[in-house]
Structure formats: C-alpha cells, structure tokens
Amino acid sequence: MTRPASRSIPGESIDLQITDVLRAATYPANKDALVDAARDAGASNEVLAMLDGLPEQDYADIAAVTKLIGSNFGPGLGL
Predict the structure, then answer these.
(1) Structural domain contains residue 12
(2) Pfam families, from UniProt (predicted)?
(3) What is the per-residue pLDDT for 70?
(4) For residue range 20-40, what is the model confidence (pLDDT) as tens digits?
C-alpha cells in the first residue's frame, strides 16, 4: 500500500523522483511495492528500471533501499 506522493514528479530530477517514491512507500516494502509506488507517482522509466533492478527482498526502511541504490548505481545519486 502506498500513500499519495506529495507532488507530481514527472518533471523532477532522478534523485528527487526516487526520494519522493521512497517517501510515499509504506515499509517494510518489497521490490514490487516500490515499483508500484513509482508507477503510481508517475516516475520516469529510468526510475522504474532502477527500482525493478533491486534484489527481491523486503526493505525495512528508506535507508535500506538507498544503500542498495547507491551501491548499484554509484555516487551520482545524491540520496
């Protein structure tokens, strides 16, 4: 289950899109719930692909997700 995003995100940077999506998700959340939250929020295909590339597991909180995103996609994301 997700909460509505605080604002529309299609025009935001990747960092802001991911932040908005992760804040809108209810934790613990699995990969599918995160992808669904991103899709519901109107996130870009790049964000959807990034979240879909996460391992299948339950994520306790935002920090657990951002740790994996940072390690998988490098320091370019200012999460």
Answers:
(1) no
(2) DUF2795
(3) 80
(4) 999 999 999 999 999 999 999
